[in-house]
């Protein structure tokens, strides 16, 4: 029996494009299905959560996950990456260093524990982290088959020093923003944020998607260009960045 997106808790955003809001931290994971390949965007907060995402993606598309894009190196987005064995993993240039250096992995583990992830799960997740093989410095087009081409764009720094966005052309166009955009709460600026560049990163998102695109935030409901523009202005005011 064919399973539906809704039965698995996924929201269909456009043809072949969906997302789900994961429990606890309301983190978004995305899915883009082509004719020959399947892309998942962000991996969840643990290997177990990543495995559930991979299995659900395979159930919804009938194909194994071939590609994984990590929007930025925070635990709730990358700790599930080890579950995507065999997938080609992409991230912005510099993510490889963050996920490789012992001190950065320890900080990710500690941040996960501070936010409520069990110590044993956080330690296992940090130990299993594997840096992305493919690093995006500008833009990178993935051909998923059947005319489905997806653009990975290094639009940061902003929320972190290594922010990657994913543009799925179509009607409507869909932009996965990572935590450059948040809807369910105020955008979080931790010690690895680059506030002086964050508004400009949102300008790049808007240039990618345009006025009629759907923008999928890292946390919260799907938004439009007006929401992204308003958040850009609020961040500029908050951080004292001139337009």
UniProtKB/TrEMBL annotation:
<dbReference type="InterPro" id="IPR050855">
    <property type="entry name" value="NDM-1-like"/>
</dbReference>
<dbReference type="InterPro" id="IPR001279">
    <property type="entry name" value="Metallo-B-lactamas"/>
</dbReference>
<feature type="domain" description="Metallo-beta-lactamase">
    <location>
        <begin position="26"/>
        <end position="219"/>
    </location>
</feature>
<protein>
    <submittedName>
        <fullName>MBL fold metallo-hydrolase</fullName>
    </submittedName>
</protein>
<dbReference type="InterPro" id="IPR036866">
    <property type="entry name" value="RibonucZ/Hydroxyglut_hydro"/>
</dbReference>
<dbReference type="Pfam" id="PF00753">
    <property type="entry name" value="Lactamase_B"/>
</dbReference>
